[in-house]
Specification:
This protein is mainly α. It contains 4 helices and 6 strands; from the N terminus they run ααββααββββ.
Length: 163
């Protein structure tokens, strides 16, 4: 064993922000509040921790950030829990409205692109196709004879026909 060398490796695991990884005691410590406060916030619907198969509360990084925001709103801004609930409701509504605006802006951009394509097609068809009077079919301009003038009779200012 004297010739063997130990190799130390480090494994880094990425955990999504909304995956429950902290038990209530750790989450409470990270959020700088008592575990009973977390339970009260859960009862009010301000926080929804995940549950392990055995029913243990598991808090995510996102939950801990939300707990810190609640702490900030109550301690620093002086809001009561009803005010905090209303802030979260309004933020959810704002996010939903913002998502809808983004979808509508994408749809408007798609429609604008379609209008531009149709307009370009209209211009190209108008320049290259003329009606064929005989059968009503359309014939490309290149297939027609040189231009000619058709006399049209229009009434003159005094009411007489002018050629």
């Amino acid at each position: 064993m004297s010739g063997m060398r130990r190799i130390r490796t480090t494994t880094r695991i990425e955990v999504s922000d909304d995956r429950g990884v902290f038990m209530i005691s750790v989450a409470a410590e990270l959020a700088e509040m008592h575990p009973q406060t977390l339970r009260m916030y859960e009862q009010r619907g301000l926080i929804e921790p995940k549950r392990s198969p055995k029913g243990t509360r598991l808090y995510s990084h996102k939950d801990v950030e939300r707990l810190r925001r609640i702490q900030e709103m109550t301690a620093e801004l002086g809001l009561n829990l009803a005010g905090v609930e209303r802030v979260f409701e309004l933020e959810d509504q704002l996010e939903a409205a913002s998502a809808k605006v983004r979808r509508l802006e994408r749809r408007a951009a798609d429609l604008q692109d379609e209008v531009e394509k149709l307009e370009a097609l209209r211009r190209s068809l108008r320049a290259e196709i003329v009606p064929y009077v005989g059968g009503g079919a359309l014939v490309p301009v290149r297939a027609t004879k040189p231009r000619f003038r058709i006399p049209v009779e229009r009434p003159g200012k005094d009411g007489t026909d002018v050629a």
